[in-house]
Design a protein that fits this description.
- This protein is an alpha/beta fold and 419 residues long.
- The chain has 15 helices and 14 strands.
- The strands form 3 sheets. The protein has a 6-stranded parallel sheet, sandwiched between helices. A 6-stranded mixed sheet has the order 9-11-10-12-13-14, with helices on one face. Strands 1-8 form a two-stranded antiparallel sheet.
- Strand 4, helix 7 and strand 5 form a beta-alpha-beta unit.
- It is globular.
- It starts with 10 loop residues before the first helix and ends in a 7-residue tail after the last strand.
Length: 419
């Protein structure tokens, strides 16, 4: 009777004493015959149930051929229909920009109309996360054919339920949603999704200090860099509409075909649609937004900072610099690309500077200099926060010039926004 039993082996003596106390007359690893007999009885009952199911399934295929084919594809074969991703939105730079959470809403509804196995909801934030499916109602007692799940304010429970839906192996594709900062409340469920190989799609919005007046408690700083440390979790931070569609294509296929989780972070503020962005380019993890054959500097941005890099590149080019702008919606996906592609996109002999409204930790893998925020944010309008903490064209241009001049490491950490 000791706490040692919690973490130390009982030993042969204690094992024997335990068996004696329980009246267990069998030795170590000895399986009594009645155990085998019991399991064999279950096998026979299972075979009978299987035969009954096969009969029901054959009758259903005759009565409802279309629904049966859908069931076979979605549940039994666990495959996606041909051309399903054609329903995802495609945009051009001429299309009006909007928040990536609104692009996410467009993608969710496009997927919902195409994939009946797509199911999920939000932790009481659906109107802010923009995660309601318009083609279906609420999944409730007595309305199990509907697909919008109202989880309430319980992020961990929500993540655990979504993981269970995936791990039940019924072919369902689960998603759950909250603010990016509130993912801390379901961190355990996110980690278990990666560890247990659950195909949960974690949808989050309000992904940076651009959240605005809600202030530091609601502004993620270290959140995305820390999530990128979780093995087998893919983190996506799209920069526009096409990248959002590409993130959903990746996440749905990763969920359905590979049973692996994806975490997505979308903006509250409107963002322009970028040149060269596409669903296909997102599948590479990183790609050229502003092309440059022989750059003297490469700017790497994610999410809302990519468009800042694009504008900064224009100013830098007027001074004679040759600038390539790279959007990196997913570090994990880029890391898995062939070495030839990675080396061509980010040549080792060209200085590279990352720009992300998050902690600078981790960017040393891809960049030489970093613009980020290593301090807590502030309560102010979102665009004011972004400007004061250094996410503006003048500051990026200034830091890029320093990088070109040989400076390395953290060139802007947001401390200028503190009074």
């Amino acid at each position: 009777d000791s706490h040692d039993a919690h973490g130390a082996p009982l030993g042969a003596e204690e094992g024997e004493a335990t068996r004696k106390q329980l009246g267990w007359k069998y030795g170590e690893f000895e399986v009594p015959q009645q155990v085998y007999d019991t399991f064999r009885k279950h096998a026979a009952a299972g075979a009978a149930k299987q035969a009954e199911w096969n009969k029901t399934w054959a009758a259903y295929q005759e009565k409802e051929p279309e629904l049966a084919a859908q069931f076979k594809r979605a549940v039994l074969d666990r495959q996606l229909p041909d051309g399903w991703a054609d329903a995802l939105p495609k945009l051009t730079p001429d299309d009006k920009g909007k928040a990536t959470r609104l692009h996410s809403q467009d993608c969710i509804n496009a997927i919902a109309s195409t994939l009946p196995e797509f199911i999920g909801g939000s932790a009481d934030l659906a109107p802010s996360n923009m995660t309601l499916m318009k083609c279906t109602g609420d999944f409730l007692k007595g309305s199990y054919s509907e697909r919008n799940m109202r989880f309430g304010i319980r992020e961990f429970g929500m993540g655990a339920v979504a993981n269970a839906i995936s791990l039940d192996k019924t072919g369902l594709i689960p998603y759950c949603a909250t603010f990016t900062i509130f993912s801390d409340y379901m961190r355990g469920a996110i980690r278990i999704a990666a560890l247990s190989q659950a195909g949960t799609i974690f949808v989050t919005t309000h992904d940076s200090i651009a959240v605005g007046e809600d202030g530091p408690t609601h502004q993620p700083i270290e959140t995305l860099p820390s999530l990128r440390l979780i093995p087998d979790l893919t983190v996506m931070r799209p920069a526009d509409g096409n990248e959002t569609a590409g993130a959903y294509k990746y996440a749905v296929e990763r969920s359905k075909l590979h049973s692996r989780p994806t975490f997505m972070a979308f903006s509250r503020q409107a963002l322009p649609n970028l040149p060269n962005s596409s669903i296909e380019n997102v599948q590479k993890g990183a790609y050229e937004v502003v092309e440059c054959a022989n750059p003297t500097l490469i700017l790497i941005g994610t999410g809302s900072e990519v468009s800042i890099c694009v504008d900064a590149a224009k100013e830098l080019e007027s001074t004679g610099a040759k600038v390539r702008v790279v959007s990196m919606p997913s570090c994990e996906v880029f890391r898995d690309q062939p070495a030839t592609y990675k080396d061509a996109l980010l040549p080792k002999d060209v200085p590279k500077m990352s720009v992300e409204a998050a902690c600078t930790s981790g960017w040393g893998e891809f960049a030489d200099a970093y613009v980020g925020i290593d301090v807590f944010g502030a309560s102010a309008p979102g665009d004011t926060c972004m400007d004061k903490f250094g996410f503006n064209v003048p500051n990026v241009v200034s830091c890029a010039s320093r990088c070109l001049a040989g400076e390395r490491g953290v060139l802007s950490n947001g401390s200028q926004g503190k009074h």
